[in-house]
Structures are given as C-alpha cells and as structure tokens.
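Next up, a specimen:

>
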Amino acid sequence: MPNPLVQYTVVRVGAIRGGRFNGQPVYEVRHPLVGDVGTVVEVYHSPELAYEVECSDSSTGETIWLSAMFPDEVEALPAA
C-alpha cells in the first residue's frame, strides 16, 4: 500500500465507489465527480484510512463539495 496522503495534498478523483453519492447533496453545490481536483483538508485513520477533500471553484473560492474520500478514490497530483 502506498504511503498515506498528508494534509494539503492536491488530489484528483480517479474513481468513486458505487452508490456512495446517490441522492441530493446536503451542503455542497454537487457531489464529487471523477476528474475533480481538490485538496486534502483532514486525514482520518479510524475506523479506516480516509481523507476529507474539499473541491473549490478556482475563481470564487466557493466550496463545490467537501467529502470523505477513500484512498482508492483519489490520487495525488504532482506538486506545481
């Protein structure tokens, strides 16, 4: 297993486990989509490894979605 990501790592959504985001978003503009880019804002170790990821509109800073994502759903992007 690769090393866990750390806070503020920029990631891309590469996959979404089936059925996780069915239904209406509660607080966000929309649910995560494959290809979205976001930033890890928190790392969870229990009950299993997961990352709280925020995807924001680059022109306004408005949060598009904020969601816990599993390691198999996101991939780190190279540092700019």
About this structure: Strands lie at 10-13, 37-44, 50-56, 63-69, 74-76. The mean pLDDT is 92. The radius of gyration is 12 Å.
